[in-house]
Amino acid sequence: MESFFSFILYPVSAILWFWHKVFGTVLGPDNGFAWALAVFFLVFTLRVVLIKPALSQMRAGRKMAKFAPHIQKLREKYKNDRQRMAQEMQKLQSEHGVNPLGGCLPALLQIPVFLSLFHVLRNFHPGAQSNFIFDKAGVDSFIQADIFGAKLSNWITQPATELALFGTDRTSMMIVGIPLMLIASVATYFTMRLSVKKQTDASMANPQSAMMAKFMMYIAPIGAIVSGWFLPIAVLLYWLANNVWTLGQQHFLTKKIDAEQERERQKEIEAKKATPRPKPGQKPVRDAKAETSSEEGEAATATATEAKPSKPAPGQRPGGKPGGKKSQPKNRPGKQASRAKKRR
Q: How many domains does the chain have?
C-alpha cells in the first residue's frame, strides 16, 4: 500500500506536519490538542480544495431533478430494451450538460486521502525512526500526545498490553472515543438527511437510488459507531471534523444554489413582464417572418386548389350541369343576327 499511495501519503503527512508546527508553537509540540487541531485543519485544507467539485455535484443534482420526469418517461417507454434506454438517457444527460460521474468525484477523492491518513497514523509507533515527513522527534511527540489520558495513535479495542505500552488504558480510551463516535454519528445522520431532503424531486428519476439514500441515512450513522471501536482516536478526530465540515458545507452550498435558482426564476419573470401584451380586443403581434411564411403557404394552397379541375358529379358529363343535362351554349353574334332577320 505504501508504494501505491506514496504520491498521496507524503502530501497528507506534509499538511499534518505543517499544521502541527503552527499549533505546536502556541500550545507546545507534545500537546494533544495541538495534534487534534492539526488533524482538524488537515481535513479543512483538503475539503477547501474539494469545494468546487462539491458545488458542481450539487448543481448536477438539481439539473437531474429538473428533467426527472423525462427520465421516468424513458424508463417506461424502453423498460424492455435496456440498451436503448441507456442510450436515450445518455443523450438526455448530454443535452442538459449533466455528468453522472461528476457527482461521485468528491467522495472518490476522499477515499485515498482517508486511507493515507490511516496509514500515516498507524506508522506512529514506539521505536520508529521516521514517518514520511516526520522525523524521530515528530514520531515521539505524537506518541506522547494525549487528550484526557487517551493516546491519539491507539484505539479502544486494542489489547490491554499494547495500551499499557503507550501509557494509557481502555477506560481512558472509551471516555474520549465514545463521545467522538456519537458526535460523528449524529453529524453523519443530519448530513445524510439534508441530502435526501434535497433529492425529493430527483427520486422520480430513480426510485431505487432514493430508497438506497434513505437506507444509508440510518446505516451510515450506525456504521460510524461500530467502526469507531477499531479506529485510532486521531482517525475518529478526522472523521468528526470531516462530518461536521460536510454538514456545514451542505447547508452553505444549498443556500447558495437556492439563491442562484431564485435569481434565474426572477429573470424569467422579468422577461415575461417585458414582453408586450396585446390590448383588449387587439390581435396578438405575430412574428413577421412566421406571418410571411404563413401567407405564402396559404397563397400556394389557394393557387393549387384553383388550378386543379373539379371532378364531375355521378351521371354528369364533363362540362355539364348536375343531372346529366348539357350546359346551354352562350349566344353567339351569328345566331343573334339570323334571329333578327326572321322576326322581320
A: 1
